[in-house]
Amino acid sequence: MGQDMAKLSVIIITKNEADNIRACLDSVSWADEIVVVDSGSSDDTVGICKAMGAQVHITTDWPGFGMQKNRALSHATAEWVLSLDADERVTSELRSEIESALNDPHGHDAFRIPRQSSFCGRYMRHSGWYPDYVTRLFRRGTARFSDDLVHESLIVDGTVGTLRQPLLHETFHDLEELLTKINQYSTAGARMLSEKNKTASLKKAIGHAAWAFFRTYFLRAGFLDGREGFMLAVSTAESTYYRYAKLLLLTKQ
Predict the structure, then answer these.
(1) Is residue 2 part of a domain?
(2) 68-93 pLDDT, tens per residue?
(3) For the chain, how long is the longest CA-to-CA vector?
(4) Measured between alpha carbons, how far is 9 from 14 in angstroms, rounded to an integer?
(5) pLDDT average, residue stretch 32-45
(6) Which of 50, 93, 108, 219 could be cross-linked to 161 through a Cys-Cys bond (beta carbons 3.0 to 4.6 Å apart)?
(7) Do 69 and 133 reside in the same domain of the chain?
(8) 49 and 26, same structural domain?
(9) How many domains does the chain have?
(10) What does the pLDDT read at residue 2?
(11) φ and ψ at 74, to 5 degrees?
């Protein structure tokens, strides 16, 4: 970034992201600093990050998404921070908008960005997936991530503005990857609910799953996303069902 412009740190957490991380790093190569916190990748993620000039920190435990992102944040040194996932990409249009926001003396302390996600090769325009606003750009010292195991949020002490250009999210290239994520996230979700002393029943699991499908496919117009919209609605229902079914078994234990 230019000499007179506000400095930007990009923070990314990784584990076995060799297939994704190169494109992610390429999209933010213009940033002043890139910080990667890796939680024990067995592929070439760390090597790729180092070769592309990122500052890499390796951890041996997994405290959850929120706390891991706070670890990455603790290594950032620039005035502004942009938090990315390894499967996200910053377009040239979004870069320009970010740079303008950072150098506005009357601007906000943080910004939310619309995120456009792909599902099995199709960018979804409905189904509750767009615009999927995520608050990721913030002035360092004004925000931190919640300590949630999964689906963490950014807690901002200040005003939050909205950018217009979307962040691209290359998620779920195929159903194999989707099923793996459903298993991982439903387990983490069940643990979170259990820690909050929530309980579940088979009736509740089925009810929540049915509502998740109805909301995604009908209320959020998933039917306009074609066959991928239907597949997404089914997978959302499936993930919801397993989250409550796993909570039921945790409670029983």
Answers:
(1) no
(2) 999 999 999 999 999 999 999 999 99
(3) 60
(4) 16
(5) 98
(6) 108
(7) yes
(8) yes
(9) 2
(10) 46
(11) -65, -20
